[in-house]
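A quick aside before the break. I want you to see a complete sequence-to-structure record at least once, exactly as it would be stored in a machine-readable document. Don't worry about memorizing anything.
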Amino acid sequence: MRAIFGIVTLLSCLSANAQPCEKDAVALAEKGAQFIKTYGKEEMIARINRKDPMFYHGSLYLAMRDLHGITIAHPTTALIGKDFLDVPDADGKAFRHEMVAVARGRGKGWVDYKFRNPETGKVAPKSTYVLRVGDVALEAGIYKQ
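That is the input. The structure line, written in tokens, reads:
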């Protein structure tokens, strides 16, 4: 039932605004967490990497990072296995360190930074919801207007 509610929440913001909202990012991360609990981490990695529509909605998508900062699943497969922990955003913010700290600490929360929007090709403010699931962090981000 919770998964259905998450899907309904996701669809309601996307259709109402045409832009994903914070509720969409949280719902997608929670949907991913439930998927891992049901089908396992390896299946989640495969789904993310192949841009499964269940976890990929254009500028809103799910990614996975280990608790050391290594990307282990991402729709842009060239990023997989890479350590970009010390690569800052456009303003010099080490945002990936903050993502790992959120995952290791509270286990969930938001991180703000700037990143290239895949739909516009321009650097824009972005907020990513980080959710720890076992020994990994799921990440779902939205671009701010």
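Two observations worth writing down. Residues 22-39 form the longest helix (18 residues). The CA atoms of residues 13 and 19 lie 8 Å apart. We'll return to this after the break.
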